[in-house]
Amino acid sequence: MKGNNIKSKIIGLTGGIATGKSTVSNYLRDKYYISVFDADIFARDAVKVDSPIFVSIIERYGSDILLDNNTLNRSKLGTIIFNDIREKEWLESQIHPFVYNCFRSLIPTLIEEINIFTIPLLFEANMTDLVSEIWVVTCDYEQQLTRLQSRNNLSKKDAIARINSQMSLTEKVQLADVVIDNNGNLTQLIAQIDGIMSSYFHKN
Fold first, then answer.
1. SS3 of 114, please?
2. Angle between helices 52-61 and 85-106 (to 10 degrees)
3. Annotated binding site, which residues?
4. Is the dihedral of CA 58, 41, 105, 10 positive or negative?
5. Which residues participate in the annotated binding site for ATP?
6. Which band of pLDDT confidence, cut at 50, 70 and 90, is reported for residue 200?
7. Which backbone phi and psi does 47 adopt, to 5 degrees?
8. Are strands 133-138 and 9-15 parallel, antiparallel or unpaired?
């Protein structure tokens, strides 16, 4: 499942939407100076104005999918793909290969002993071969739903649709090498990460 021919250790950090992946990766970067590479940044690059994927999206959905500044209306696009599995699969077929290739091209350039690839759809996009181990950030469903509604200003229906579009957290946890439980507060989360890192460095 995971890559075996990787010189640098690459932690694939994943989880569900709004479980706290960015909080974890930012802390690991700031406290432990670990290099973090984020799939969301590559995904934004994939749809930058006039890119081939951007053009394909406009051809499929028309100019109504654009904001006044001619960039993608991500909210409108999200409403489309999270309510139509065929459209979601089409968009992912455009973006996932681009993101995968971005990560793949990074691997030969890595010089740090430990690196983090933050990939929300690590399992769903079949990118596990890019990493040497998998860390999953998880929380209870109600916590996830509340955080997502608050963070993205979504209705309960829209938030549920986004959560249900991903592999369940239960399944992801079963495939994890390390599980980070983010049901508590920030202090508890940091203490948990520090404990994991302490044992991790001791082990490695």
1. strand
2. 180
3. 18-23
4. negative
5. 18-23
6. confident
7. -115, 20
8. parallel
